[in-house]
Amino acid sequence: MIVPIGIKVQRVDGFIAEQLGTISRSNLKNRIDSLLINGEISKLSKKIHDGDIIEYSLKKQIDTIISPEKIDLDIIYEDDNVFVINKPEGMVVHPAAGNYSGTMAQGIMYLLQNEDTDFAVDDTRPGIVHRLDKDTSGIIIAAKNSRTLSLLSEQFQNRTAVKTYLAVINGRLPKKKGRIETLIGRDKNNRKKMTWKTERGKEAITEYRVLKEWDGKSFVALYLKTGRTHQLRVHMLSMGTPIVGDSVYSRKPGSTGLLLHAYRLRIEIPGVPGMSDFRAPLPERFKEAIRFYSDKG
Hints:
The protein is α+β, with helices and mostly antiparallel strands. The protein folds into 3 domains: 10-58, Structural Genomics Hypothetical 15.5 Kd Protein In mrcA-pckA Intergenic Region, Chain A, CATH 3.10.290; 75-158, Pseudouridine synthase (2-Layer Sandwich); 164-263 and 286-296, Pseudouridine synthase (2-Layer Sandwich), CATH 3.30.2350.10. It has helices spanning 12-20, 25-31, 104-112, 146-157, 231-238, 284-296, and strands at residues 10-11, 32-37, 40-41, 47-48, 54-58, 75-78, 82-87, 137-143, 162-170, 177-187, 190-195, 202-213, 217-224, 260-267, 276-279. Strands 6, 7, 8, 9, 10, 11, 12, 13, 14 and 15 form a 10-stranded mixed beta sheet that branches. Strands 3-2-5 form a 3-stranded antiparallel beta sheet. A two-stranded antiparallel ribbon has the order 1-4. The radius of gyration is 20 Å and the shape is globular. The N and C termini lie far apart (61 Å).
């Protein structure tokens, strides 16, 4: 696609949405798979000019109608603007191929029916600012209105929201505290996996602190400084210490389930002074694993 001569300078997402005519700019963010402008990888926020060559691909659209669904969500905090939810392991955050029902998004849509919200009824990600992998448990915050969604999204983009994860890993890290900085991109040999072995990925930063060590295992706190797909799982693998129970990145995942938990979130929410601090208790699978490794020594 070539930008016509004489077109008004604008963001590329607005231009693509306008050309397609069947997708909004906000939904385009969820659908875009790749974007090149004049042969270079670009962001949707990039300004375009006449003569620019735009190449992009979209993820496959889900055909199933997304309907509100009554789901027993573990809500640890709620006010007029947000839900803070403790997601269980195994729950999908929003609909995708193979997971058309029972998702957190549908549970939130059900709750929003009784709220004064300005979200569209067919929104497939109502108020969901960030996501967790299906097998990761822990805190997710969701907005009840577009104003709050914008404020929360800005904090994640500007990295002022503070996220702490807990994990049990195989092996030991080289230091008690450390920082991991790599690029993370799609694995060219397996499109379902990410890798740090790339020259065209995005910057990814994780800080860690070792909480406890046993024979062959460690209990660690992980601090996300960026939010790349599978970042913590890939970074732990890059250190030779894959997360216990990781069926994608560990050669011997075992039967514990993925021992990765979004434990804490510090973030500003409308109407509440200062930073709010939310925590999701360790799930039972974690406690059992910690007891087992502690007894084993």
